[in-house]
Amino acid sequence: MEGDRPWAAPTEYVVVGRRWRYAPPPWVMYEAVVDDLKQWLTLLTGEVSPRVAASRRPDAVLLKPWVDPAVTAVELRIEQDGRGSAITVLAYGDVPQLPDESRRRVRYRLGTIFGAALREWVDEPH
Fold first, then answer.
1. What would the pLDDT profile of 10-29 be if each residue is shown by its tens digit?
2. What is the largest CA-CA distance in the chain?
3. Residue 46 CB: number of other CB atoms within 10 A?
4. Cβ(6)–Cβ(95) under 8 Å?
5. I want to staple 40 with a disulfide (CB 3.0 to 4.6 A). Which of 21, 62, 63, 121 is the partner?
6. Residues 52-76 as b or e (16 or more Cβ within 10 Å = b)
7. Strand partners, 14
8. Phi then psi for 109, rounded to 5 degrees?
9. Do residues 4 and 75 make contact, with C-beta atoms less than 8 angstroms apart?
């Protein structure tokens, strides 16, 4: 395994990568994904519920399977970013590159999940 990776890459190919910044610290983001995923993630018709396949507190989570069949797994790398945190999301696939339409769909869905739903969950009291 390379560097500080907690596990081997799920597949050889990263088909989409995105990064979001959040106000809460890394441990809050980690717990939101690992402990509260089913409370804030709303699945669309035909999507499969992801599960936490592996995790390392407080900086890494591997979700498998993913909601979109074009993606075999999603890895989250959580890091301190100023007073808050940042999450780098890496979507893995079995092919070196997704077709344009699939790539756009995956990028958009990652945005609705991590850029909107997760952000709303951690920013709202519950």
1. 989 999 999 999 999 999 99
2. 41
3. 8
4. no
5. 121
6. eeebeebbbbbbbbbbbebbbbbbb
7. 92
8. -65, -40
9. no
